[in-house]
Design brief:
By secondary structure, the protein is α+β, with helices and mostly antiparallel strands. 77% of the residues lie in helices and 10% in strands. The chain has five helices and four strands.
Length: 243
C-alpha cells in the first residue's frame, strides 16, 4: 500500500484550517455565550440565595416576634391572673371585715336594746314597788308611823357631825320642819323639844305640810337637810331596783 503524501498533507491542512475556523468562529462565541449564561445563572443563583437568606432572616424575625408576643401574652395573662386574685382576696377581706363590723354593730345594738329594755323594766318595777309601798303606808296608823319617822329623824340629827349641830345652835338659825300630815300645836311643841335636845340646843322652828313625803319628816336649814320619810326611803328603793 502506498501513501499519497500530498493528499494527506492537503487533508491535514484542511483539518487544521477547519479547526482554526471552528475555534475562531464557533467555539469562542459559544464559550463566551456559555460563560455569559453561566454568569447570568450564577447571578440569578446569587440573587436567589440572597433572597432566600433575606427570607430566612425575615422568617427568623417573625418567629422571634411571635415568640415575643407569646411571652408577652403569657406575662399579660399572668399579671391579669395575679391582679384578679389580689382583687378577689381584697374583696373577700373587705366583705369579711364588713360582715364582722355588721355583726359587731348588730350585737352592740342588741346589747344596747337589752340594756334599755332591762332599765325600762327595772324602772317600771321600781315605780310599781314605790306605788305599792305608798298605798300600803297610807293604810297604816298615821300617828304610829309619824312617831317612828320622828324617832329616825332624831337619830339622824344625833348622828350629824358636832360642827353641823353646833352651827344649828346659833341664835340666828331657823329650821323648817316639813311633815307629811298636818300636826297640831301640841305635836309641834313636842317635836320642837325633841329636835332641840337632839341638836343640844333650842333652834327656831317653822312648820310646813308636804303631802309628797307620804309619811315622815324632813328638816331643812340653810346648809342642812335631814330626811326621814317614806318618799326618801322609796326613792332609795327605786334607785336600788333600777341598778
Amino acid at each position: 500500500m502506498s501513501i499519497d503524501w500530498w493528499t494527506l498533507g492537503f487533508q491535514t491542512v484542511n483539518v487544521a484550517v477547519l479547526i482554526w475556523l471552528l475555534g475562531h468562529f464557533f467555539w469562542k462565541p459559544v464559550a463566551a455565550m456559555i460563560e455569559a449564561r453561566q454568569a447570568a445563572a450564577d447571578k440569578v443563583t446569587g440573587e436567589a440565595e440572597a433572597a432566600r437568606a433575606k427570607a430566612d432572616a425575615a422568617l427568623a424575625d417573625v418567629e422571634k416576634t411571635r415568640a415575643g408576643f407569646a411571652k408577652e401574652r403569657e406575662a399579660i395573662l399572668s399579671d391579669a391572673h395575679q391582679a384578679a386574685e389580689a382583687a378577689r382576696t381584697k374583696t373577700l377581706a373587705e366583705a369579711q371585715t364588713a360582715a364582722e363590723a355588721t355583726e359587731a354593730a348588730a350585737k352592740a345594738a342588741i346589747a344596747k336594746d337589752d340594756q334599755v329594755l332591762q332599765k325600762a323594766w327595772a324602772a317600771r318595777s321600781a315605780d310599781l314597788a314605790v306605788d305599792i309601798a305608798g298605798r300600803l303606808s297610807a293604810r297604816m296608823d298615821s300617828k304610829a308611823v309619824q312617831a317612828n319617822f320622828l324617832d329616825d329623824l332624831l337619830r339622824e340629827i344625833r348622828d350629824l357631825p358636832e360642827a353641823a349641830r353646833k352651827a344649828v345652835r346659833a341664835e340666828d338659825v331657823t329650821l323648817e320642819l316639813r311633815s307629811a300630815v298636818k300636826i297640831d300645836a301640841a305635836a309641834r311643841k313636842s317635836c320642837g323639844i325633841s329636835i332641840g335636845e337632839a341638836f343640844g340646843g333650842a333652834p327656831k322652828l317653822t312648820f310646813k305640810t308636804d303631802h309628797k313625803l307620804i309619811a315622815g319628816f324632813e328638816l331643812h336649814g340653810e346648809h342642812l337637810v335631814v330626811s326621814s320619810s317614806w318618799r326618801a326611803d322609796l326613792a332609795a328603793i327605786k334607785a336600788d331596783l333600777a341598778t
